[in-house]
Amino acid sequence: MTRDYSNFLPRGAYAAGSHAKLDPLQALGWHPFFAQQISVDDLSSTPPVRIVEVHRSGLHALGDDIDTVLPPRADVTVGDWLMLDPSHPRSSRVLERTSLIKRRAPGTDRQEQLIAANIDTAFIVTSCNQDFKVARLERYAALAFEARITPVIVVTKTDLVPDPQSYIDAARAVSDMIDVVALDARGDAPRTELTPWCKPGKTVAFLGSSGVGKSTLANALLESQSIETRTIREDDAKGRHTTTRRELHAMPNGCLILDTPGMRELQLTDAADGINDLFADIQDLAARCRFNDCQHETEPGCAVLEAVDEGILDAHRLGRWRKLMAEDAFNSASLAERRSRDKAFGKMVRGVKKIKDVRR
Ligand SMILES: Nc1nc2c(ncn2[C@@H]2O[C@H](COP(=O)(O)OP(=O)(O)OP(=O)(O)O)[C@@H](O)[C@H]2O)c(=O)[nH]1
Ligand SMILES: [Mg+2]
Ligand SMILES: [Zn+2]
Question: Where would I find the EngC GTPase domain in this sequence (predicted)?
Fold first, then answer.
């Protein structure tokens, strides 16, 4: 399961050339934000490691001359920095993150699932085919805004349609704060078009459905074909879930790339700020409604409904905003309920243990 350290960090990450030399930690994305959280003593007794891969059976961690697998933990995800405690690896301290992407885990138990930490740019990938859905792009964009990550929409497979412009226009309409890049992921285009975000020491992530070309883009940036890719189904353009784990890869210039498995479902949770940022235009209108608690449904003096009537605001966009807000409120509430239930249960267990200890 362990991997050769030298393979992860390509020769380019050390070689003198067009870019500065990176030491082994910098080549893993270490920077002052993390260094500030630790003392010199910490550094020698508990060396920093970054989680570069999440398996079902463990967390693959790399550091300066360290290559190890830690037991899985729900509170740690790919991209995290840990201070590796050699005597108690399971309780290694997790450093504060610059960013965290999470969602409501699929299935019926409403747990949250950590997707990735310490990401600088999220490439939200979709294709010029049936995968393209504005509502889905908005979901990912809200997720990125919530996590304070720069989102960039990447529209792939422009070579497969006679006129990709309609897709590009629809992607641009998602938000004027988000750059849109449209390309054929298989050639040199990703290397030229995505480089502004792929700087040494930065970590970028590819997110999106299965089959949209996330691994193809990652291979293009890595200048290799090391990540497996597979053709999509012809009838409905759906991918075959080729990538099965979240894994960081190092670009020759020292930028780190996170390839992720296609997500079947992306349910937002605790993302109200991200949704509000994405739909800032609706927030601005809502501030002008006559009633403070206006629900923008039938109320008189509703600036949101007026904007729809006047053709300034798209009614579908308003509908999607409502849906995301409702979903987020529901998931966040059930998560809060779960957290307090877990807390109460923990308290009860500790109480019982205390009674037992006293009796002993
Ligand atoms: N024509 C064309 N094919 C592309 C493009 N991007 C990706 N493909 C093809 O689409 C298929 C799926 O690409 P992948 O890179 O495996 O997709 P993925 O997003 O990593 O999919 P999962 O790992 O399943 O999540 C492969 O056959 C790619 O060669 C593109 O821009 N143009
Ligand atoms: Mg893939
Ligand atoms: Zn209103």
Answer: 117-264
- CA separation, residue 270 to residues 76, 275, 276, 282, 316 (Å): 18, 10, 12, 19, 23
Tokens of 132: 């393209």
Number of domains in the chain: 3
Examine residue 86 and state whether it is found in any structural domain, yes or no.
yes
Ligand 1 closest atom vs CA 262: 25
Nearest Cα residue to 92 out of 114, 76, 113: 76
Q: Which two tokens stand for residue 191?
A: 């290397």
CA 55 to ligand 2 centroid distance, Å? 15
**Ligand 1 pocket, mutate which of 222, 229, 238 (most atoms under 8 A from CB):** 229
Same domain, yes or no: 310 and 345: yes
267 found inside a domain? no
Together in a domain, 216 and 174: yes
Q: Do 247 and 280 sit in the same domain of this protein?
A: no
User: What is the domain-level CATH number for residue 144?
Assistant: 3.40.50.300
Q: How far is the CA of 212 from the centre of ligand 2 (A)?
A: 8
Q: Long-range pairs for 34-37 at CB < 8 Å and ≥24 separation?
A: 34/81, 34/95, 37/95, 37/96
Ligand 1 lining (C-beta closer than 6 Å) = 156-157, 159-160, 184-186, 210-216, 229-232, 239-243, 261-262
Which residues have beta carbons under 5 A from ligand 2 (an ion)? 214-215, 242-243
pLDDT in tens, 287-305: 999 999 999 999 999 999 9
Q: Which residue range forms the structural domain that includes residue 12?
A: 5-94
81 and 123 housed in the same domain? no
- Residue 18 is predicted with a pLDDT of 39
